[in-house]
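@channel anyone free to eyeball this complex?
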Amino acid sequence: MKADLVVGLQWGDEGKGKIVDHLAQRADVVCRFGGGHNAGHTIVVDGKKYALHLVPSGILNKKAINIVGNGVVLSPKDFIKELEQFEDIKGRLYISDKAHLLLPYHAQIDKAKEKLKGDKAIGTTGKGIGPAYGDKITRVGHRVGELLNPKKLTNDIMEYFRIYKPIFEALQIELPNKDELLDELTSYKEALKDLITDTTLMVWEALDNSKNILIEGAQGTMLDIDHGTYPYVTSSTTISAGACSGLGISPKNIGKTIGIAKAYCTRVGNGPFPSEDLGEAGEYLRQKGHEFGTTTGRPRRCGWFDAVATRHAVRLNGVDEIALMKLDVLDGLDEIKVCVGYEFEGKKINYVPYTLENVKPIYKSFKGWSKSKGIREFEKLPLEAKDYILALEELSGAKIGIISTSPDREDTIIR
Ligand code: IMP
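replying in thread with the prediction:
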Protein backbone atom coordinates (compact mmCIF):
# COMPACT_ATOMS: atom_id res chain seq x y z
CA MET A 1 0.00 0.00 0.00
CA LYS A 2 1.12 3.57 -0.66
CA ALA A 3 1.25 6.49 1.73
CA ASP A 4 -1.20 9.38 1.33
CA LEU A 5 0.12 12.88 1.61
CA VAL A 6 -1.36 16.22 2.66
CA VAL A 7 0.49 19.40 1.63
CA GLY A 8 -0.20 23.14 1.76
CA LEU A 9 -0.53 24.91 -1.59
CA GLN A 10 -0.15 28.52 -0.43
CA TRP A 11 2.03 30.26 2.20
CA GLY A 12 1.11 27.92 5.06
CA ASP A 13 -1.85 28.20 7.44
CA GLU A 14 -4.19 26.79 4.80
CA GLY A 15 -6.15 24.84 7.40
CA LYS A 16 -4.30 21.53 6.91
CA GLY A 17 -5.08 20.71 10.56
CA LYS A 18 -8.79 20.07 9.96
CA ILE A 19 -8.15 17.64 7.07
CA VAL A 20 -5.13 15.94 8.65
CA ASP A 21 -7.01 15.54 11.92
CA HIS A 22 -9.91 13.92 10.06
CA LEU A 23 -7.67 11.55 8.04
CA ALA A 24 -5.49 10.74 11.08
CA GLN A 25 -8.52 9.16 12.78
CA ARG A 26 -8.32 6.21 10.40
CA ALA A 27 -4.55 6.08 9.85
CA ASP A 28 -2.27 3.40 11.29
CA VAL A 29 0.82 5.59 10.98
CA VAL A 30 1.06 9.41 10.77
CA CYS A 31 4.39 11.00 9.78
CA ARG A 32 5.91 14.49 9.76
CA PHE A 33 8.70 14.92 7.21
CA GLY A 34 10.00 18.48 7.49
CA GLY A 35 10.07 21.81 9.28
CA GLY A 36 10.11 22.19 13.03
CA HIS A 37 8.17 23.94 15.75
CA ASN A 38 7.60 26.89 13.39
CA ALA A 39 4.49 24.91 12.34
CA GLY A 40 1.39 24.73 14.48
CA HIS A 41 -2.25 23.94 14.68
CA THR A 42 -4.84 23.44 17.36
CA ILE A 43 -7.12 20.43 17.60
CA VAL A 44 -10.14 20.28 19.89
CA VAL A 45 -11.18 16.80 21.07
CA ASP A 46 -14.02 16.34 23.56
CA GLY A 47 -13.78 20.01 24.49
CA LYS A 48 -10.05 19.82 25.25
CA LYS A 49 -7.65 21.95 23.17
CA TYR A 50 -4.33 20.50 22.00
CA ALA A 51 -1.62 22.66 20.42
CA LEU A 52 0.49 20.64 17.99
CA HIS A 53 3.80 21.94 16.66
CA LEU A 54 6.12 18.96 16.19
CA VAL A 55 3.97 16.02 17.25
CA PRO A 56 1.99 14.49 14.33
CA SER A 57 -1.83 14.72 14.47
CA GLY A 58 -2.21 10.95 14.87
CA ILE A 59 -1.32 11.38 18.56
CA LEU A 60 -5.03 11.98 19.15
CA ASN A 61 -5.89 8.60 17.64
CA LYS A 62 -4.99 6.05 20.31
CA LYS A 63 -4.43 3.37 17.65
CA ALA A 64 -1.99 5.32 15.48
CA ILE A 65 1.79 5.33 15.55
CA ASN A 66 3.37 8.74 15.02
CA ILE A 67 6.69 9.39 13.40
CA VAL A 68 8.84 12.52 13.39
CA GLY A 69 11.00 11.92 10.33
CA ASN A 70 14.65 12.61 9.57
CA GLY A 71 13.78 15.75 7.58
CA VAL A 72 12.52 17.54 10.70
CA VAL A 73 14.63 19.87 12.85
CA LEU A 74 13.71 18.98 16.41
CA SER A 75 14.00 21.24 19.42
CA PRO A 76 14.06 18.75 22.33
CA LYS A 77 13.11 21.51 24.76
CA ASP A 78 9.95 22.48 22.86
CA PHE A 79 9.11 18.89 21.97
CA ILE A 80 9.27 17.77 25.62
CA LYS A 81 7.02 20.70 26.59
CA GLU A 82 4.54 19.78 23.86
CA LEU A 83 4.43 16.19 25.13
CA GLU A 84 3.15 17.39 28.54
CA GLN A 85 -0.33 17.65 26.98
CA PHE A 86 -0.60 13.92 26.36
CA GLU A 87 -1.03 11.25 28.96
CA ASP A 88 0.22 8.11 27.31
CA ILE A 89 2.51 8.22 24.32
CA LYS A 90 4.33 4.99 25.08
CA GLY A 91 4.74 2.96 21.90
CA ARG A 92 2.86 5.60 19.85
CA LEU A 93 5.51 8.20 19.09
CA TYR A 94 8.97 7.87 17.57
CA ILE A 95 11.65 10.32 16.42
CA SER A 96 14.17 9.58 13.71
CA ASP A 97 17.72 9.25 15.00
CA LYS A 98 18.70 11.14 11.83
CA ALA A 99 16.49 14.20 12.51
CA HIS A 100 18.62 17.26 13.25
CA LEU A 101 18.78 18.86 16.65
CA LEU A 102 17.62 22.43 16.99
CA LEU A 103 19.21 23.79 20.17
CA PRO A 104 18.67 27.12 21.97
CA TYR A 105 21.67 28.74 20.25
CA HIS A 106 19.94 28.26 16.87
CA ALA A 107 17.02 30.43 18.00
CA GLN A 108 19.48 33.02 19.36
CA ILE A 109 21.28 33.15 15.98
CA ASP A 110 17.94 33.39 14.13
CA LYS A 111 16.79 36.38 16.19
CA ALA A 112 20.17 38.14 16.12
CA LYS A 113 20.48 37.83 12.33
CA GLU A 114 16.92 39.00 11.75
CA LYS A 115 17.65 42.07 13.86
CA LEU A 116 20.79 42.83 11.87
CA LYS A 117 18.89 42.59 8.59
CA GLY A 118 16.58 45.49 9.57
CA ASP A 119 13.99 46.08 6.86
CA LYS A 120 15.41 43.16 4.85
CA ALA A 121 14.38 40.71 7.61
CA ILE A 122 12.57 37.56 6.49
CA GLY A 123 10.09 37.82 9.32
CA THR A 124 10.95 34.33 10.60
CA THR A 125 9.18 32.73 13.53
CA GLY A 126 12.42 33.26 15.49
CA LYS A 127 12.51 29.58 16.44
CA GLY A 128 15.94 28.85 14.96
CA ILE A 129 14.73 26.92 11.91
CA GLY A 130 17.11 28.53 9.36
CA PRO A 131 20.26 28.21 11.52
CA ALA A 132 19.45 24.55 12.35
CA TYR A 133 18.98 23.64 8.67
CA GLY A 134 22.03 25.78 7.87
CA ASP A 135 24.16 23.67 10.21
CA LYS A 136 22.75 20.50 8.64
CA ILE A 137 23.58 21.59 5.10
CA THR A 138 27.01 22.94 6.01
CA ARG A 139 27.69 19.64 7.84
CA VAL A 140 28.23 21.02 11.30
CA GLY A 141 24.85 20.02 12.73
CA HIS A 142 24.09 17.30 15.28
CA ARG A 143 21.48 14.60 15.03
CA VAL A 144 18.91 13.33 17.49
CA GLY A 145 20.69 9.95 17.72
CA GLU A 146 23.71 11.70 19.23
CA LEU A 147 21.62 12.61 22.28
CA LEU A 148 22.06 9.01 23.41
CA ASN A 149 25.70 9.82 24.26
CA PRO A 150 25.45 13.26 25.95
CA LYS A 151 29.10 13.41 27.01
CA LYS A 152 30.39 13.00 23.47
CA LEU A 153 27.74 15.35 22.11
CA THR A 154 28.70 17.98 24.71
CA ASN A 155 32.35 17.76 23.66
CA ASP A 156 31.42 18.02 19.99
CA ILE A 157 29.18 21.06 20.55
CA MET A 158 31.84 22.75 22.73
CA GLU A 159 34.27 22.26 19.84
CA TYR A 160 31.70 23.84 17.47
CA PHE A 161 31.35 26.78 19.90
CA ARG A 162 35.15 27.12 19.92
CA ILE A 163 35.41 27.22 16.12
CA TYR A 164 32.56 29.70 15.70
CA LYS A 165 33.39 31.82 18.76
CA PRO A 166 34.04 35.01 16.74
CA ILE A 167 30.61 34.72 15.13
CA PHE A 168 28.81 34.16 18.43
CA GLU A 169 30.69 37.11 19.91
CA ALA A 170 29.81 39.37 16.99
CA LEU A 171 26.15 38.40 17.35
CA GLN A 172 26.38 39.03 21.12
CA ILE A 173 25.17 35.53 21.92
CA GLU A 174 25.97 34.13 25.32
CA LEU A 175 26.62 30.41 25.19
CA PRO A 176 26.18 27.80 27.93
CA ASN A 177 29.28 26.46 29.67
CA LYS A 178 30.24 22.80 29.39
CA ASP A 179 28.50 21.69 32.60
CA GLU A 180 25.29 23.50 31.76
CA LEU A 181 25.29 22.00 28.28
CA LEU A 182 25.92 18.49 29.61
CA ASP A 183 23.05 18.84 32.11
CA GLU A 184 20.73 20.10 29.40
CA LEU A 185 21.59 17.33 26.93
CA THR A 186 21.39 14.65 29.64
CA SER A 187 17.90 15.81 30.56
CA TYR A 188 16.86 15.58 26.89
CA LYS A 189 18.27 12.06 26.70
CA GLU A 190 16.33 10.96 29.78
CA ALA A 191 13.07 12.35 28.41
CA LEU A 192 13.43 11.10 24.83
CA LYS A 193 15.61 7.99 24.79
CA ASP A 194 12.70 5.56 24.34
CA LEU A 195 11.40 7.48 21.34
CA ILE A 196 14.63 7.67 19.31
CA THR A 197 14.94 5.02 16.63
CA ASP A 198 15.49 4.33 12.94
CA THR A 199 12.09 5.53 11.72
CA THR A 200 12.94 4.85 8.07
CA LEU A 201 12.90 1.12 8.84
CA MET A 202 9.57 1.59 10.63
CA VAL A 203 8.00 3.30 7.62
CA TRP A 204 9.34 0.62 5.26
CA GLU A 205 7.83 -2.06 7.47
CA ALA A 206 4.49 -0.24 7.57
CA LEU A 207 4.53 0.00 3.75
CA ASP A 208 5.39 -3.71 3.43
CA ASN A 209 2.54 -4.60 5.80
CA SER A 210 -0.01 -2.51 3.85
CA LYS A 211 -0.64 -0.15 6.76
CA ASN A 212 -2.67 3.00 6.20
CA ILE A 213 0.02 5.72 6.25
CA LEU A 214 -0.67 9.44 6.32
CA ILE A 215 2.11 11.95 5.69
CA GLU A 216 1.48 15.41 7.09
CA GLY A 217 3.12 18.37 5.37
CA ALA A 218 4.09 21.55 7.22
CA GLN A 219 4.10 25.17 5.98
CA GLY A 220 3.12 25.59 2.32
CA THR A 221 4.45 25.33 -1.24
CA MET A 222 5.17 29.05 -1.60
CA LEU A 223 7.47 28.80 1.45
CA ASP A 224 9.49 25.96 -0.12
CA ILE A 225 13.25 26.61 -0.10
CA ASP A 226 13.58 25.95 -3.87
CA HIS A 227 10.19 26.75 -5.35
CA GLY A 228 8.80 29.41 -3.03
CA THR A 229 9.34 33.17 -2.90
CA TYR A 230 13.07 32.92 -2.07
CA PRO A 231 14.59 34.31 0.13
CA TYR A 232 11.29 34.93 1.93
CA VAL A 233 10.73 31.24 2.55
CA THR A 234 11.37 28.69 5.26
CA SER A 235 14.50 26.54 5.14
CA SER A 236 13.00 23.15 4.26
CA THR A 237 11.48 21.34 1.30
CA THR A 238 7.78 21.75 1.97
CA ILE A 239 6.52 20.16 -1.26
CA SER A 240 5.70 16.47 -1.77
CA ALA A 241 9.27 15.68 -2.86
CA GLY A 242 10.37 16.55 0.68
CA ALA A 243 8.28 13.66 2.00
CA CYS A 244 10.60 11.21 0.23
CA SER A 245 13.90 12.58 1.52
CA GLY A 246 12.40 13.58 4.88
CA LEU A 247 11.22 10.07 5.67
CA GLY A 248 13.46 7.87 3.52
CA ILE A 249 10.86 6.58 1.07
CA SER A 250 10.77 6.57 -2.73
CA PRO A 251 8.39 8.58 -4.95
CA LYS A 252 6.80 5.24 -5.84
CA ASN A 253 5.60 4.93 -2.23
CA ILE A 254 3.41 8.03 -2.43
CA GLY A 255 -0.25 7.38 -3.20
CA LYS A 256 -2.84 10.13 -3.18
CA THR A 257 -1.71 13.73 -2.69
CA ILE A 258 -4.24 16.14 -1.25
CA GLY A 259 -3.37 19.82 -1.62
CA ILE A 260 -4.87 22.24 0.89
CA ALA A 261 -5.77 25.80 -0.11
CA LYS A 262 -7.90 28.44 1.53
CA ALA A 263 -10.70 30.01 -0.55
CA TYR A 264 -8.66 33.22 -0.24
CA CYS A 265 -5.00 33.69 0.60
CA THR A 266 -2.83 34.67 3.58
CA ARG A 267 0.83 34.92 4.47
CA VAL A 268 2.77 35.77 7.62
CA GLY A 269 6.20 37.32 7.61
CA ASN A 270 7.73 39.45 4.89
CA GLY A 271 8.11 38.90 1.18
CA PRO A 272 6.06 39.27 -1.98
CA PHE A 273 2.36 38.46 -1.93
CA PRO A 274 0.87 39.65 -5.27
CA SER A 275 -2.81 39.23 -4.38
CA GLU A 276 -2.54 40.91 -0.96
CA ASP A 277 -5.41 43.30 -0.21
CA LEU A 278 -4.35 46.19 1.99
CA GLY A 279 -7.84 47.69 2.10
CA GLU A 280 -11.19 46.86 3.65
CA ALA A 281 -11.54 43.43 2.07
CA GLY A 282 -8.20 42.28 3.53
CA GLU A 283 -9.24 43.48 6.96
CA TYR A 284 -12.62 41.75 6.58
CA LEU A 285 -10.88 38.45 5.81
CA ARG A 286 -8.45 38.85 8.74
CA GLN A 287 -11.19 39.51 11.29
CA LYS A 288 -13.74 37.04 9.94
CA GLY A 289 -11.16 34.31 9.28
CA HIS A 290 -9.37 34.88 12.63
CA GLU A 291 -6.17 35.27 10.67
CA PHE A 292 -3.64 35.55 13.49
CA GLY A 293 -0.70 33.12 13.71
CA THR A 294 -1.04 30.07 16.00
CA THR A 295 2.71 29.91 16.64
CA THR A 296 3.58 33.60 16.96
CA GLY A 297 0.19 35.37 17.26
CA ARG A 298 1.17 37.75 14.45
CA PRO A 299 -1.68 39.15 12.28
CA ARG A 300 -1.61 37.43 8.90
CA ARG A 301 -1.54 39.42 5.68
CA CYS A 302 -4.73 38.68 3.73
CA GLY A 303 -5.77 38.78 0.09
CA TRP A 304 -7.44 36.99 -2.79
CA PHE A 305 -7.04 33.44 -4.06
CA ASP A 306 -4.00 33.31 -6.33
CA ALA A 307 -4.85 30.83 -9.07
CA VAL A 308 -1.43 31.21 -10.74
CA ALA A 309 0.43 30.26 -7.56
CA THR A 310 -2.04 27.43 -6.90
CA ARG A 311 -1.58 25.96 -10.37
CA HIS A 312 2.20 26.10 -9.81
CA ALA A 313 1.71 24.28 -6.49
CA VAL A 314 -0.62 21.66 -8.00
CA ARG A 315 2.04 20.79 -10.57
CA LEU A 316 4.98 20.81 -8.14
CA ASN A 317 3.23 18.51 -5.67
CA GLY A 318 1.40 16.25 -8.12
CA VAL A 319 -1.89 17.12 -6.43
CA ASP A 320 -4.73 14.66 -7.08
CA GLU A 321 -7.35 16.63 -5.26
CA ILE A 322 -7.66 20.05 -3.62
CA ALA A 323 -9.35 20.62 -0.28
CA LEU A 324 -10.71 24.18 -0.34
CA MET A 325 -10.87 25.57 3.19
CA LYS A 326 -12.76 28.40 4.88
CA LEU A 327 -15.22 29.07 2.04
CA ASP A 328 -17.64 30.55 4.60
CA VAL A 329 -15.19 33.38 5.41
CA LEU A 330 -16.09 34.87 2.01
CA ASP A 331 -19.82 34.97 2.93
CA GLY A 332 -21.18 38.53 2.82
CA LEU A 333 -18.71 40.04 0.33
CA ASP A 334 -20.31 41.69 -2.74
CA GLU A 335 -17.31 41.09 -4.95
CA ILE A 336 -14.68 38.35 -4.75
CA LYS A 337 -11.50 38.63 -6.78
CA VAL A 338 -9.19 35.88 -8.06
CA CYS A 339 -5.66 36.48 -9.34
CA VAL A 340 -5.58 34.83 -12.78
CA GLY A 341 -2.30 36.20 -14.15
CA TYR A 342 0.64 38.47 -13.38
CA GLU A 343 2.19 41.47 -15.05
CA PHE A 344 5.93 40.83 -14.91
CA GLU A 345 8.61 42.96 -16.55
CA GLY A 346 6.02 44.59 -18.81
CA LYS A 347 4.48 41.29 -19.95
CA LYS A 348 1.35 39.37 -19.00
CA ILE A 349 2.26 35.90 -17.76
CA ASN A 350 0.35 32.98 -16.28
CA TYR A 351 3.18 31.15 -14.48
CA VAL A 352 5.23 31.83 -11.34
CA PRO A 353 8.49 33.54 -12.35
CA TYR A 354 11.74 33.20 -10.35
CA THR A 355 10.75 36.23 -8.27
CA LEU A 356 7.35 37.65 -7.37
CA GLU A 357 8.83 41.01 -6.33
CA ASN A 358 7.31 43.81 -8.43
CA VAL A 359 4.75 41.46 -9.95
CA LYS A 360 1.27 42.98 -10.40
CA PRO A 361 -1.82 40.79 -10.12
CA ILE A 362 -4.37 40.51 -12.92
CA TYR A 363 -7.78 39.90 -11.39
CA LYS A 364 -11.04 38.34 -12.46
CA SER A 365 -14.10 39.37 -10.44
CA PHE A 366 -16.80 37.05 -9.13
CA LYS A 367 -20.17 37.90 -7.64
CA GLY A 368 -20.33 37.23 -3.90
CA TRP A 369 -22.97 35.30 -1.96
CA SER A 370 -24.52 35.64 1.46
CA LYS A 371 -24.31 32.23 3.16
CA SER A 372 -22.28 29.07 2.68
CA LYS A 373 -21.50 28.53 6.37
CA GLY A 374 -22.33 25.06 7.62
CA ILE A 375 -23.54 23.71 4.25
CA ARG A 376 -22.63 20.02 3.80
CA GLU A 377 -23.78 19.31 0.22
CA PHE A 378 -22.36 20.92 -2.91
CA GLU A 379 -25.80 21.27 -4.51
CA LYS A 380 -27.07 23.28 -1.53
CA LEU A 381 -24.38 25.97 -1.88
CA PRO A 382 -25.48 29.37 -3.31
CA LEU A 383 -25.18 29.43 -7.10
CA GLU A 384 -22.44 32.10 -6.96
CA ALA A 385 -20.36 29.97 -4.56
CA LYS A 386 -20.66 26.96 -6.89
CA ASP A 387 -19.58 29.10 -9.86
CA TYR A 388 -16.61 30.35 -7.84
CA ILE A 389 -15.50 26.83 -6.88
CA LEU A 390 -15.85 25.51 -10.43
CA ALA A 391 -13.80 28.45 -11.71
CA LEU A 392 -11.04 27.83 -9.12
CA GLU A 393 -10.97 24.19 -10.13
CA GLU A 394 -10.56 25.08 -13.80
CA LEU A 395 -7.90 27.72 -13.09
CA SER A 396 -5.91 25.57 -10.64
CA GLY A 397 -5.85 22.42 -12.75
CA ALA A 398 -7.03 19.98 -10.06
CA LYS A 399 -10.36 18.71 -8.84
CA ILE A 400 -11.70 20.41 -5.72
CA GLY A 401 -12.87 17.30 -3.92
CA ILE A 402 -13.32 18.64 -0.40
CA ILE A 403 -14.84 21.98 0.66
CA SER A 404 -14.85 23.19 4.24
CA THR A 405 -17.68 25.48 5.31
CA SER A 406 -16.88 25.99 9.03
CA PRO A 407 -14.25 24.91 11.58
CA ASP A 408 -16.58 22.09 12.68
CA ARG A 409 -15.33 18.67 11.57
CA GLU A 410 -18.79 17.80 10.16
CA ASP A 411 -19.22 20.96 8.07
CA THR A 412 -17.35 19.53 5.13
CA ILE A 413 -18.55 18.86 1.60
CA ILE A 414 -17.11 15.77 -0.07
CA ARG A 415 -17.74 15.91 -3.82
P1 IMP B 1 11.06 30.30 9.62
O1 IMP B 1 10.47 29.03 9.11
O2 IMP B 1 10.81 30.53 11.08
O3 IMP B 1 12.50 30.45 9.24
O4 IMP B 1 10.31 31.52 8.89
C1 IMP B 1 10.45 31.77 7.49
C2 IMP B 1 9.14 32.24 6.88
O5 IMP B 1 8.21 31.15 6.88
C3 IMP B 1 8.46 33.36 7.66
O6 IMP B 1 7.77 34.19 6.73
C4 IMP B 1 7.45 32.64 8.51
O7 IMP B 1 6.36 33.46 8.88
C5 IMP B 1 7.02 31.53 7.56
N1 IMP B 1 6.50 30.33 8.23
C6 IMP B 1 7.21 29.36 8.86
N2 IMP B 1 6.40 28.42 9.35
C7 IMP B 1 5.15 28.78 9.01
C8 IMP B 1 3.87 28.17 9.21
O8 IMP B 1 3.71 27.10 9.78
N3 IMP B 1 2.80 28.86 8.69
C9 IMP B 1 2.95 30.02 8.00
N4 IMP B 1 4.12 30.60 7.79
C10 IMP B 1 5.21 30.00 8.29
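from a first look: The domain at 3-77+199-414 is CATH 3.90.170.10 (Adenylosuccinate Synthetase; Chain A, domain 3).
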